[in-house]
Write a structure and sequence with these properties.
Elements: H1 7-20, E1 24-27, H2 33-40, E2 46-50, H3 57-70, E3 76-80, H4 87-93, H5 99-104, H6 120-138, H7 158-169, H8 177-198, H9 207-219, H10 225-232
Parallel strand pairs: 1-2, 2-3
Helix pairs in contact: 6-7, 7-8
Length: 233
């Protein structure tokens, strides 16, 4: 699904519901195979979600191989979240050790995430419920019922519905998709600035921490402190 469709949020909810039913369910961390021994040493049903799978093809390849060799007879589900099937998927499908056969076989399926709300009325209902939740969490009054134009296509992505709701709770105009993204980045900037100031580096507020955030986002992942220092340098 495209960015903002709710892939990660959907699987957070799914993992929580499955844990309540006795499953071992969660998101893959970058701990690597040594830590997987304990993870797989159980006969409990298990679901592992790999977010940004296109950036973790090596881990996904190892995880599939590990699961095929260690989990025979135990119910195991792997969910790889990505914006689309590209070269990374084709690369995995050509892998040996049974991985390519597994990905090309009947046990593997590809699902396209559809919009949470399709019609303007459904989107407005989702907006209102999100606004009520945000208001409760932030200790603010629920904004009066609004007649926002929810016909633009970008509201197919629930991220924009929720950003519009958050903006309304904070007393700001929703605007179009670009304005909503600018609103989100300004809000994130506030958290970054507060974080570096609390760490004693107030001089890094503003452009410095923003550039660091952009660089690390474009890199996709940073595994340790030295790598972060080298990348930002």
């Amino acid at each position: 699904g495209a960015g903002g469709m709710g892939k990660t949020r959907l699987m957070i909810e799914a993992c929580g519901r499955l844990r309540a039913r006795g499953w071992r369910a969660g998101f893959l961390t970058r701990s690597g195979p040594p830590a997987w021994d304990a993870l797989f040493d159980t006969d409990v049903s298990m679901l592992i979600t790999i977010d940004y799978a296109e950036l973790q093809r090596a881990e996904l390849r190892m995880l599939i191989e590990y699961a095929l060799s260690r989990r025979r007879g135990c119910r195991t589900r792997l969910v790889a979240l990505a914006r689309g099937r590209g070269d990374w998927w084709q690369d995995l499908a050509r892998t040996g050790h049974g991985i390519g056969d597994f990905l090309s076989g009947p046990a593997t399926s590809v699902k396209i995430l559809t919009p949470v709300a399709r019609t303007p009325e459904e989107r407005l209902d989702s907006f209102q419920r999100a606004a009520e939740s945000f208001a409760f969490r932030l200790g603010r009054p629920v904004p009066a019922s609004q007649q926002i134009d929810m016909t633009p296509d970008y509201y197919d992505r629930v991220l924009f519905v929720h950003l519009a709701a958050l903006a309304a709770v904070l007393g700001q105009q929703a605007g179009d998709d670009s304005a909503l993204l600018d609103f989100a980045i300004r809000r994130e900037q506030g958290f970054w600035d507060a974080g570096v100031e609390a760490a004693g580096f107030a001089e890094l507020r503003g452009r410095a921490v923003l550039e660091a955030a952009v660089v690390t986002t474009m890199a996709g992942r940073i595994d340790h402190r030295d790598e972060a220092i080298g990348l930002i340098s």
